[in-house]
TrEMBL record:
Gene3D superfamilies: MetI-like. It comes from the Bacteria. This is Sugar ABC transporter permease. Keywords: Membrane, Transmembrane, Transmembrane helix. The chain crosses the membrane at residues 37-57. It is a multi-pass membrane protein.
Amino acid sequence: MNSISVFDIPYVLTNGKNGTNSFSTTLIETAFSYNKYGQACAMAICMLVIAAVVMVFKNIVFKEENENTYE
């Protein structure tokens, strides 16, 4: 899940140039360089929904077999 929020290292090292844009850097660039705050907000909500779906799917697939650990 941490790969979704990759922002700081590529941005600090390359400033988003040379094809190192991730979804997070594109989102920040859309909001603050192009002043498209609504589009950046929609991108952030899409990222949140995708992350939530992936987490729910992961929790269902990798569910522990022994849920009662106190017995």
